[in-house]
Design goal:
It is built from two helices and nine strands, in the order H-E-E-E-E-E-E-E-H-E-E. With 134 residues, it is mainly beta. It has two domains: 60 residues, SH3 type barrels; 48 residues, no CATH class. The strands form three sheets. The chain has a five-stranded antiparallel beta sheet, with no helix packed on it. Strands 6-7 form a two-stranded antiparallel sheet. Strand 6 and strand 7 form a beta hairpin. The longest helix has 7 residues. The radius of gyration is 29 Å and the shape is rod-shaped. The model has no long low-confidence stretch (mean pLDDT 93). The structure holds zinc ion (ZN). Zinc ion (ZN) binds next to loops.
Length: 134
């Protein structure tokens, strides 16, 4: 059972979601930390846990709610390269993409990328790609 240790040795009503005041700071117990109680203070971000001594200046109050740590958003970073047939410079197609390219790429419509226009910054040559591979 959770919080066995602190319940047994300190005789405190520790449980998940219990509102506590530690040294005057409000928080909620969010984790059994063995000899300690893991408290998420209201002033801290959700998911941030402080190990607190079960009896040192702790007031045990009612049951509150544990704030959720939001899951982070993942960001995709990618490049598509082509060598200019005229000057051989490596061009990143995604650099100047107007959305047309990525839309087709991520829409799985790779066939439509055939003849996609590319402009070379280096030599000002304009050409089309034959296909995209990965
Ligand atoms: Zn070029």
């Amino acid at each position: 059972m959770e919080f066995n240790y602190v319940k047994k040795y300190y005789n405190v009503p520790a449980c998940l979601g219990r509102i506590v005041k530690v040294d005057g700071k409000s928080g909620v117990i969010v984790k059994d930390c063995g000899h300690y109680i893991g408290v998420n203070f209201d002033d801290d971000k959700p998911g941030f846990i402080s190990n607190c001594h079960p009896t040192w200046n702790v007031e045990y109050l009612g049951i509150g709610s544990i704030r959720n740590q939001p899951n982070p958003t993942a960001y995709l970073d990618f490049n598509v390269w082509v060598d200019c047939p005229d000057c051989n410079a490596s061009l990143n197609i995604t650099d100047e993409d107007d959305g047309n390219f990525t839309e087709k790429l991520f829409g799985g419509r790779w066939d439509e990328l055939q003849d996609y226009d590319v402009y070379c910054d280096n030599c000002e040559y304009e050409f089309q790609i034959e296909k995209v591979e990965y």
